[in-house]
Amino acid sequence: MTGAVLLALLPIVILTALGLTLRRRRFLTESFWPQAERLGYFVLLPSLFFHSLATARVEAVPVGALALTLILSTLVVAALVVALRPVMRIDGPAFTSVFQGSVRFNNYVGVTLAAGLFGAQGIALAAICNAAIVPTVNVLCVLVFARHGAARLTPRGIVRQLATNPLIVSSLAGLAFRLLGWGLPPGLEPALRTLGAASLPIGLLCVGAALEFEGARAWLRPVVSASAMKFLAMPAATLLVASLLGLHGPALTTALLFQVLPTASSAYILARQLGGDAPLMAGITAVQTVLALVAMPLVLIGLSAFVPMG
């Protein structure tokens, strides 16, 4: 497990560092990165999820147990963060950033790791993880913004955001496609596979380009709080729920992987749009991306000594 995790992390480190270097050296124009993120989010990653689920053998995947493990563990940690709010001594906008840093995750890193460890099965498992966690996290974060930030979203607005989320729609569509026994047309299948393959390198380059460490220096306590929730409380809650539901093997490994992923750069955009503390969010994202390179293998290697996950 140790060697497999480290090998799966290697391309993530290389591509993330390359993205950071390209952005700092201004090799590409500044306008390139937002457009690349948009392309990945709305076209490339949905293609990957739809293709992987439409062609996967989901009959062998514990879809219900995996989804329930992720949802329940996320709710447990979210409740813990809210309960600890009074002792954090930070204002409302800053709390929204700590909350996002505790529960939000980076899709690109998770899919790359799952694919590196389990191949096509890993991509299918990752797509199921996204279908379960994305709506859960988005609902929770929007509710927290409505309470502690400057957001004024109505219930209809929340439903609209979820119903039009390309990652949720593509995952559910691919799963339905496979369960109905429909096959992809010969010309469409390789096109979707190629688009999906492009999502991972482009996404990881964008992850590196979005790293900003300036906010972390001024907000040490909130950064530490969010990271402790992400890398300690979240995997512990996931393992507890998984043991109760009997989740094991590659599904358990993938669930743990996704629950120790660093916060996505999209959290910064959400903080800026909904009245959160955007500089703090940028700092949390940058620090967690670096910490995850150590935390992810440590969590999996440590837990593999007690639980058979491979």
UniProtKB/TrEMBL annotation:
One biological process term from GO is: transmembrane transport
Pfam families per the UniProt record, alphabetical? Mem_trans
Lipid bilayer topology: Multi-pass membrane protein
Q: Enumerate the transmembrane spans.
A: 39-56, 63-84, 123-146, 167-185, 191-211, 283-307
Q: Which Gene3D superfamilies match?
A: 1.20.1530.20
Q: Which keywords has UniProt assigned to this entry? A: Cell membrane, Membrane, Transmembrane, Transmembrane helix, Transport
**InterPro entries noted in UniProt:** Mem_transp_PIN-like, Na+/solute_symporter_sf
Q: Where in the cell is it found?
A: Cell membrane
Q: Name one GO cellular component term.
A: plasma membrane
PANTHER family of this UniProt entry? AUXIN EFFLUX CARRIER FAMILY PROTEIN
Question: What family is this protein classified in?
Answer: Belongs to the auxin efflux carrier (TC 2.A.69) family.
What is the official name of this protein in its record? AEC family transporter
Q: Which organism is it from?
A: Methylobacterium currus
What lineage does the source organism belong to? Answer: Bacteria, Pseudomonadati, Pseudomonadota, Alphaproteobacteria, Hyphomicrobiales
